């Protein structure tokens, strides 16, 4: 059997929700008007000890939708050249359909009811995902429409930090500023931080229970 069949389901860990770590790169801050240019998603798995870890990263370069706005300042920060043929970008509809297919497969494997977006400033990513889903008239968006799990909140709680780079450094993970603001790098760092905090909490919770028993 493959590991696709023998996985330990996540169904009971987050109340039936499947956490999927998402990072988007865009042409601005307005999810309705600005282009969605890049999407990365990290699939998580849980082991027999109940610890989360990164399993697989999926990544899409996306063509700007018709008449999309692209702020030069945003493009300067993320370094994206939207119309460069080297991007090998694909239409928004194809990218989202492929992404949602991956998530729906994971939902079934993990016996979960719905996916929940994990991100850093997660509402930003969810808003762009929802806006793109509406543009392509998607009827099967597997994500909860407004609930998220945000490493900004978790980082503030655990480390007193809200900036992704500072949380990573506080957690002893290091940070490469040159790779930052690429969807894959930011998504994987966010995933590592999320898993680390969840796993640390689980270890502490187990230790406290053993003391009180």
Question: Can you give a write-up of this model?
Answer:
- By secondary structure, this protein is an alpha/beta fold.
- The chain has a domain of 134 residues: Nucleotidyltransferase, domain 5 (2-Layer Sandwich).
- The chain is built from 6 helices and 5 strands.
- Strands 3-2-1-4-5 form a 5-stranded mixed β-sheet.
- Strand 4, helix 3 and strand 5 form a beta-alpha-beta unit.
- It is globular, with a radius of gyration of 18 Å.
- The model has no long low-confidence stretch (mean pLDDT 93).
Note the topology:
Elements: E1 17-26, E2 36-46, E3 52-61, H1 72-78, H2 92-110, E4 114-119, H3 122-135, E5 143-150, H4 151-159, H5 164-170, H6 183-212
Parallel strand pairs: 1-4, 4-5
Antiparallel strand pairs: 1-2, 2-3
In short:
The protein is of the alpha/beta class and 213 residues long. The protein is 40% helix and 21% strand. It is built from six helices and five strands.
What do the pLDDT scores average to?
93
Share of helix, binned: 40-55%
CATH class of the domain at 17-150: Alpha Beta
State the secondary-structure class.
Answer: alpha/beta
Based on CA atoms alone, the radius of gyration comes out at: 18 Å
Hey, roughly how much beta strand do the residues contain?
Answer: 15-25%
- For the record, the CATH architecture of the domain at 17-150 stands as 2-Layer Sandwich
Number of strands: 5
Q: Counting H and I runs of at least 4 residues, what is the number of helices?
A: 6
Largest sheet: 5 strands, mixed
Q: Output the CATH homologous superfamily of the domain at 17-150.
A: Ribonuclease H-like superfamily/Ribonuclease H
Residue stretches low in confidence (pLDDT < 50, at least 5 long) are none
- State the order of secondary-structure elements, H for helix, E for strand: EEEHHEHEHHH
**CATH third-tier fold name of the domain at 17-150:** Nucleotidyltransferase, domain 5
Shape: globular
How far apart lie the N and C ends? Answer: 39 Å
How is the largest sheet built, in terms of strand order?
3-2-1-4-5
């Amino acid at each position: 059997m493959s590991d696709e069949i023998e996985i330990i389901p996540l169904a009971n860990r987050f109340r039936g929700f499947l956490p999927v770590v998402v990072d988007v790169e865009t042409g601005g801050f307005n999810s309705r008007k600005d282009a969605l240019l890049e999407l990365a998603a990290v699939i998580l798995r849980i082991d027999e000890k109940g610890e989360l870890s990164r399993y697989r990263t999926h990544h899409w370069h996306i063509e700007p939708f018709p008449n999309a706005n692209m702020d030069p300042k945003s493009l300067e920060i993320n370094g994206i050249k939207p119309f460069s043929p080297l991007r090998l970008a694909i239409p928004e509809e194809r990218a989202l359909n492929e992404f949602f297919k991956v998530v729906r497969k994971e939902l079934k494997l993990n016996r979960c009811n719905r996916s929940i977006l994990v991100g850093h400033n997660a509402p930003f990513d969810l808003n762009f995902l929802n806006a793109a889903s509406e543009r392509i008239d998607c009827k099967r968006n597997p994500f909860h429409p407004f609930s998220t799990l945000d490493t900004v909140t978790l980082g503030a709680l655990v480390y007193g930090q809200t900036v992704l780079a500072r949380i990573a450094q506080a957690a002893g993970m290091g940070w490469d500023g040159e790779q930052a603001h690429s969807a894959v790098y930011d998504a994987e760092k966010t995933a590592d931080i999320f898993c680390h905090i969840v796993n640390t909490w689980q270890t502490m919770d187990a230790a406290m229970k053993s003391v009180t028993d």
